[in-house]
Predict the structure.
Amino acid sequence: MNLRAPAILVAARSHGETAVVARMLTEEYGLVAAYVAGGRGRNLRPVLIPGNRVEAELRAKSDSQLPFARLELVESRGPWLGEPLAAAAISWATALTAATLPERNAYPSLYSALGGLLDAVCNAGSAREWLRGMIAYEALMLRELGYGGAVPAAEAELAPLLEIFGRQGALIERYLLADRKADVMAARNRLRERLGRMV
């Protein structure tokens, strides 16, 4: 493997004393995991924030080897991590993506949708402006992985959107996250709780 591609970082897990195993969603190659040497250091820690857009260069001697990655920051989501609602939305969207998609299968529509959703979360004036996008992203993921899923009609008010968001959670838990060891739904529950405070 020897590739260079724009990517959205969806997960970063510490490995050893200083390294990180990063998982990134790319348009052409799908979800790719890679070893980032020095990822826990001062220079790379701000780059390895889930939700960040990066330019990734991956190299491996064989397809069975975990590739080594060099990452360049393109766009940071760091400034929004101090806002509880935006941080919860970014955390849920990236955790769902990392936990659900199979490695190295391209999903260009999900790549585009995730990028648009994260932009909306970071730039919208209120949750009402991006919550429908979150629901649509979840529905698209259900559909892409073969479980149906319908995009809701446009809703003006937050309360009806929250009802749809709540109902869709059961489908995600049953179909997409049924056999996951980590409690990925905890990130969604945090987001649901914070959204509920706005009603």
In short: The longest strand covers residues 2-15. Residues 79-196 form one domain. The chain has two domains: 2-76, 79-196. The chain has a mean pLDDT of 91.
